[in-house]
What does this fold into?
Amino acid sequence: MRRRALALVLAAAAAAGGLAVLLRPRAPSPPGFDPAVARSVVESYSRLMHALYSDAVVQAESLRGAVAEFIDRPTPEGIQACRDAWLAARPVYLQTEVARFYEGPIDGGADAPEKLLNAWPLDEAYIDYVRGDPGAGIINDPARYPRIDRATLRGANEQGGEANIATGWHAVEFLLWGQDLELGPGGGKRPHLDYVPGGGAGARRAAYLRTCADMIVEDLVLLREQWAPGKPDNYRSWLAGLEPRNALGKIMTGVATLAFGELRGERLITPYTTKDREDEHSCFSDSTHLDHLNDMIGIRNVWTGRHRDLAGPGLRDLAPDPRLAARVDASLEDCLEALRDPRMAPFETAIQGLDSDPGRRAVHAAIQRLLEFNEAFFELSTRMGVPINTQLQKGP
Amino acid sequence: MIRRAALLALLAACDGEAGPKRPAPEEELPGGAATVRDASENAFGFPAPNLPAASSDLFFVGNSFFKTNWAIAPASAEGRDGLGPLFNAASCSSCHLRDGRGRPPETDDEPFLGLLLRISRPGPVPDPVYGDQIQPRAVPGVPPEARPRVRYREVAGAYGDGTPYRLRHPAYTLESPGYGPPAADLLVSPRVAPAVFGMGLLEAIPEARLLALADPEDADGDGISGRPNRVPDVRSGRTVLGRFGWKANQPTVEQQSAAAMLGDIGITSPLFPEENWTDAQVEASKRPTGGRPELDAAKLEALTLYMKSLAVPARRRPADPLVRRGAELFAAAGCAKCHVPRHVTGEDPRFPALSGQAIFPYTDLLLHDLGPDLADGRPDFEATGNEWRTPPLWGLGLVRTVSGHTFLLHDGRARDAAEAILWHGGEALKSREFFRNLGAREREALLAFLDDL
It folds into this structure.
């Protein structure tokens, strides 16, 4: 979901026992890190983001291609190919989410693309028919929305409520799977016939799907360019020019907020508490457990600086002592292990039942491991003298 | 962050600059320890930073009930169905987007969202057909109650120095009534959705402190009365001080939230277990519910915790000379007699984060007669048709950023803070005239102060 950095303060409170630690006046002290190494870590981080967004563009283009082919000739195989392409595109996108929450390219300012790309929870009845309401949504309302195009969908996004999401990954997910009406693996079962042009809304639905798929590619290209090397006016150059402490503050704020607020709070604690599928991140495709895992892999990438052929350095290289580095290492691995637990899938089933049931125990364990990671990471931030907070300088 | 404040205070102590008194450093953090330093479009949506970990977990849960749309029952979203059958909006966030403030429609076609019409018949009693609120929307198969419209008539005025201004007078009509023509003596009170942060702190101000500020007979002869509203507390069954709502007709955050769930979204809860249709609304009475109640006790608890825990945004530039000058004028004009700047919250063992905080909401939570031009003519418990509760002013300067507009007052008729002041009458007449007769530079200072809140 697009909601904010609210978690930061919570994260700080939980890790440090209240506001006092953040607010205590501190005498200027030498940074708890080597500025030269810090610069190379920031540069490595930018390389990582460029690589991830580059991969994300390739995957999204593949999804766009599958969608175009399917819309030209709607077949059961075609809609399955689109679903496969969507699932294939998601991991790398989730790995970029660690670059949220510090007003970077993804969510800095009112025009930033995050709320168009990955906003959730999404009220599917805002987009298309749902069980019990065959005339629901923008697709079935040509009077109010005569044209289905970028301008219409951008304009409709988040109008009249935070769940009125019109675009992005989860809109496409709903358009490919439909409502998931039964517990168990596999997601929704939207028929390919939904896309056959004719008397119904097939043509409008097809236009909607195509427009969303196009917009994902376009937004990801813009993000890739903000992280591209050798461009004096982009975010990467601006970040490189910041004091290392400030640049690290952003990078570490992204890690802490994703881990503690978004992943632990919004995506695990909330559905664990409510047992509502509405609170599940990718509820139409039943791939929520992979979202959680890939968010955490994204955090590990930033910690190590490693990803495919990238070999660091990462935040780990700035840890003030090996014991603390090992503690973060261990708690990160614990989180990954908890999130890989097969009892977490499908997530909508895992959150049901009694607290003593295997699925709920697995989710609860992940919530605990993330709390421990958060404590270790805030210890790191304190020792490095890099405050994690919301008072961040605006981007360019 | 306090580090910066501390530095500022230090500088202030050294530079010896003459001029208006500097604000106390605590004023920079209007919510005390429950203040957050953020001036972005999310500024109203942060949890109090001193919230204990267990509460912060519940905060996320409550947030999910605030932002997501309720579905029509029966729906696959079992925990989130039961919308309507008559309703104003499908979620809290529809009207309080990003926990912010709603506004009246800007065009004739735009539906009412973020502005609703409370109704009653003289007595006051609810209308036997339409109830106590117009719900312009309904689930399929149920007629909506009406289509409200607002039209404005502009009236010219002038500041003491001759600078002209224009105020817009709203007039409301109910078109396409779904259940027969509304009664000729129907009383209509428009109410805009306010920003919802800081409510836990307002609830934590000791009742005795607020009652001590009351002066119902104006015994001190300053022209300002200040009357408490006395309203039923559904949970305790007692009559207590009203604190929330434009007429202070709700006593607690929990009851305010549950009442809005029912009146605005059509969601029942342990406090209000009955659906909100009247006997005349037959189609509505036949609709399935989303459970009894639809918002169960655990969910209401999470929602209430969310509402109580939303932090107050810090001030941005309280040390700015113009802002400081504006603060002096605010006091000199007598604004602070009702918009009381400072309170100290009481001790609540269940909510230590909100306890014992020096806060700056700029309200007394009491009712004041603001004159005939602002009156809605609709009594609400002890509140007369001329009275309104003093709304808090904290966060005022961030409404533009968070909610994308600057419409103020109970119905959003004022297009900015200056217009809002100019609408004040009754007990506030002297203060309004003070403002109206200021020079341009001083008006600018006063508005700069409000903009920094």
